[in-house]
Amino acid sequence: MHTIVSVSLNEQAPDFELTTGEGTPLRLSSLRGRKVVLFFYPRDHTAGCTAQACGFRDVYEELVTAGAEVVGVSSDSAETHNGFAARHRLPFPIVSDPGGTVRRRYGASQRLLLNRTGRVTFLIDEHGVVREIFVSLWRVGEHVERARAWASAVSR
Fold first, then answer.
1. Residues 46-50: contacts with CB under 8 Å, at least 24 apart
2. Does 35 have pLDDT greater than 90?
3. Alpha helices (H) in the chain, listed in sequence order
4. H or E stretch including 25?
5. N or C: which end of the chain has fewer CB within 10 A?
6. Active-site residue 49, yes or no?
7. Which of 143, 117, 150 minimizes the C-alpha distance to 52?
8. Would you call 136 helix, strand, or coil by DSSP?
9. 56-108 confidence digits (pLDDT tens)
């Protein structure tokens, strides 16, 4: 397994503007003043990705109460994201990164034997600084639990 993360802890998160499943643009810098759980995932409608997105859905109100917003990123189209979000009642934006430009900028890739792109979650503070990075393709629940613990800890 070869993992590359080019954004480091305590660095400013690179800004981007991508299209949500609803077709509206979302700029990361527009979320300044809130904590952001930015998670990169391989594909909509797969078992692991659905479990991860639904995990964030299930703790979403708790994250919002702690002052955090959740944003999912994959290379699937905005139309696919729209169906995925509707089917699973996801209350947070999922943005389309066609060609993986933002994923590469963040270095959020994990190459395995099957050449799959992995899961990376960045926890970004109110000032746009990356405070935690979690990389794991298979332990989807840990992404949610680590984000939940971080958001709760910093809101105290």
1. 48/119, 48/137, 48/138, 48/140, 49/74, 49/119, 49/140, 50/84, 50/88
2. yes
3. 47-58, 60-65, 78-87, 101-106, 140-154
4. strand 25-27
5. C
6. yes
7. 143
8. coil
9. 999 999 999 999 999 999 989 999 989 999 999 999 999 999 988 898 888 87
Distance (Å, whole) CA 132 – CA 125: 9
Residue 149 tokens, joined: 């613990």
Single out the residue of 102, 110, 4, 88 nearest to residue 44, CA to CA: 88
Catalytic residue among 7, 31, 49, 130: 49
List, for residues 110-127, the tens digit of each pLDDT value.
444 344 456 789 999 999
**Mean confidence (pLDDT) of the chain:** 85
Pairing of strands 17-20, 120-124: unpaired
CB of 99 closer than 8 Å to CB of 105: no
